[in-house]
């Protein structure tokens, strides 16, 4: 059944304003157009809703019974359309973002704080997950946006580079290499390294870049999560090669990070979205804010962290 909203709106305006002239002016249409709308509705219903002469307009018995429902229909549609227009013009609404843990704990909160100032009242659901899980969350519609690592190209996904995150050498302050201003890869062959599992997108990204330079680094220990590696380093079990964003400056007393050079290797952080899909106004505003505020192509600083 096709609902004649224009006809219902015309009927309500005429009934409330008491005549065709005022109703036409209110709806910004001609009286002829308004009359046609009402006639079309009455023809569809096969009922007379208004009795009108040259001197007056009066609701029929059926019209009086229908008016409350008609007003409710017009009010609901008007409010719904107004809400959508408000969402579009002001970026209002809610959305879900999937994000790798290192970005979720540092860079993302800073971005969300700025977003909350510009778009107060919006609700964001955060899925903190591995790089592969971030990609799958966006691919399967569980999240509109993802912040993660580049993965195998997928025809349904689009990746926009957000920043670059250099790999650094993490150790305790008593480590033999801890006084260095920087560490070169050849220094690490005899270090007790804590390696990230090959199940991790971080490890795959690092291995690809190391292979380009003919560098092969193996670890005495292997873990899956960066947070576990940091815990072992902090306990003095060994040292680790991790992205600089893994640990905030000064977050762990006695633990430092040192720039790795010869070569400097960085992981790329990307924003992931589905191709050929329209983001909600809230998600679109967040993505535009991320790229607008200078993150695209930027690099997280490589300064070493002094012992706290």
| The CATH architecture of the largest domain | 3-Layer(aba) Sandwich
Total beta strands: 13
Please, how many domains? 3
Rg calc:
31 Å
Strand content: 15-25%
CATH class wording of the largest domain:
Alpha Beta
Tally of helical runs: 10
Pfam families: HTH_1, LysR_substrate
Keywords: DNA-binding, Transcription, Transcription regulation
Organism: Parazoarcus communis
GO molecular function: DNA binding; DNA-binding transcription factor activity
Question: Would you mind describing this structure in some detail?
Answer:
The structure is a single chain. This protein is α/β, with parallel strands linked by helices and 308 residues long. The protein has 3 domains: 86 residues, Winged helix-like DNA-binding domain superfamily/Winged helix DNA-binding domain (Arc Repressor Mutant, subunit A, Orthogonal Bundle); 101 residues, D-Maltodextrin-Binding Protein, domain 2 (3-Layer(aba) Sandwich); 102 residues, D-Maltodextrin-Binding Protein, domain 2 (3-Layer(aba) Sandwich), CATH 3.40.190.10. 41% of the residues lie in helices and 23% in strands. It has 10 helices and 13 strands. Strands 3, 4, 5, 6, 7, 8, 9, 10, 11, 12 and 13 form an 11-stranded mixed beta sheet that branches. It is rod-shaped, with a radius of gyration of 31 Å. The C terminus is likely disordered.
